[in-house]
Design brief:
three-stranded parallel β-sheet, Arc Repressor Mutant, subunit A, 18 helices, alpha/beta, 390 residues
């Protein structure tokens, strides 16, 4: 395992030489090139060679040399990892790259799912789990800053600490990934604040509306942004941020970045105290959808949110060949009356045009806790969801 530093190829080659020298017990081993290094490794009993943060080496122009290594020298499995997605895509796997077509497998490593975060902190309560997942997005490096015992307190302290990477990482990521970070920054901030249509984004960012799709497509390609349409609808959709950490950062840190940097946390924490619970409602919706999908609790062919004018249904799914529709509400609240929720869902569903005269409506209600349940819906509180997560 070789970890690259952002210090050029000469530094990394020297560092790799030291690691390999120690690994094989050959004092003073030095390589003059990466080709020479791989020629040495080809004669060793090593099954895998992993180079992490390979994007730092790419900056030094080593990709053509690695093409020769792969074509002429390589005997082992070579694993190239990198956190800079745009660099890895364009310089390693892209059509114009010298190494194009030489990869057996290209794998994007996604953040942990909610159930994995619960497994990471086995003694953590469900409410704390939702909070922590909402702030970190399930990124292992971010989870390492927390112990899961009092999530809201930890988030309040650590996410707003100017000395921790949690406070700065989104900004650093955009600076590394984007040629025009300011424009992407404004677009992401707009989406995080709920201004998520093309027109709203253009008005907020002051970027020409005709240019916005280019930036959005780049963000989609990097996995930062998603485009969502209502289920079964042909209308234009809206944009959302895919990652909870980035969503949290733009909602709670970005508007107060300079103040926090000056160690003035008053306004940021006041906003956090006021808005965090509302934000968790959105996080809870995503978690419920994830659990529905992972547990296969319903049989469906399509599933998304649905909205029309001022009406919205959090979970909408259809089983087209059986004329079944599933309608779900996710309430980040205690003492929910499931009967009342079903009544509201029924009224909303009357506006959803899909086989209205010949369909079977099924209801799902998710909540922190219930005051009343109903036979008209499958209902799940936090204890039920915890059990489903395993």
């Amino acid at each position: 395992y070789l970890l690259c530093a952002d210090k050029g190829s000469e530094y990394n080659l020297k560092n790799f030489s030291n690691i390999i020298s120690e690994r094989y017990g050959i004092p003073g081993l030095r390589f003059e090139s990466f080709k020479e290094m791989f020629q040495f490794l080809a004669g060793q009993e090593t099954e895998f060679i992993c180079i992490d943060e390979f994007g730092y080496l790419v900056k030094s122009g080593v990709v053509p040399e690695f093409q020769e290594i792969i074509d002429e020298i390589l005997e082992q499995r070579l694993i190239l990892c990198g956190s800079n997605v745009s660099t890895m895509k364009s310089k390693i796997t892209g059509y114009e790259s010298p190494t194009y077509g030489r990869m057996d497998l290209i794998k994007k490593i996604n953040p942990l799912k909610f159930k994995d975060v619960l497994e990471w902190f086995p003694d953590m309560g469900m409410e704390d789990g939702v909070m922590l997942y909402g702030a970190t997005g399930g990124v292992p490096r971010y989870l390492e800053f927390f112990d899961g015992k009092d999530a809201e307190k930890e988030i309040r302290e650590k996410m707003f600490d100017p000395d921790l990477m949690l406070y700065r990482d989104t900004k650093l990521l955009l600076q590394e990934e984007m040629p025009e970070p300011t424009r992407y920054y404004l677009i992401l901030e707009s989406i995080a604040l709920g201004k998520n249509s093309l027109t709203d984004i253009a008005n907020y960012s002051k970027i020409d509306r005709n240019q916005i799709p280019y930036y959005l497509n780049t963000l989609k390609d990097l996995g930062f942004v998603k485009h969502e349409k209502p289920l079964l609808a042909k209308k234009r959709g809206v944009y959302g941020i895919t990652d909870n950490y980035m969503k949290f950062w733009f909602r709670f840190i970005s508007p107060f970045y300079e103040e926090i940097d000056s160690e003035n946390l008053r306004n940021a924490r006041k906003n956090f105290d006021k808005e965090f619970n509302t934000y968790l409602g959105e996080v809870f919706e995503d978690i419920c959808r994830e659990i529905v999908i992972d547990t296969e609790m319903i049989d469906y062919t399509q599933m998304r949110r649905w909205w029309w004018k001022d009406k919205e249904i959090d979970i909408t799914a259809v089983k087209e060949d059986e004329n079944k529709i599933f309608l779900g509400e996710c309430k980040w609240s205690d003492d929910v009356d499931a009967e009342k929720i079903v009544s509201k869902l029924t009224k909303k569903a009357s506006h959803l045009e899909w086989k209205n005269d010949d369909r079977e409506e099924n209801y799902l209600v998710f909540a922190k806790s219930f005051s009343e349940r109903t036979d008209k819906a499958k209902s799940f509180d936090l204890d039920d969801l915890r059990a489903l997560c395993g």
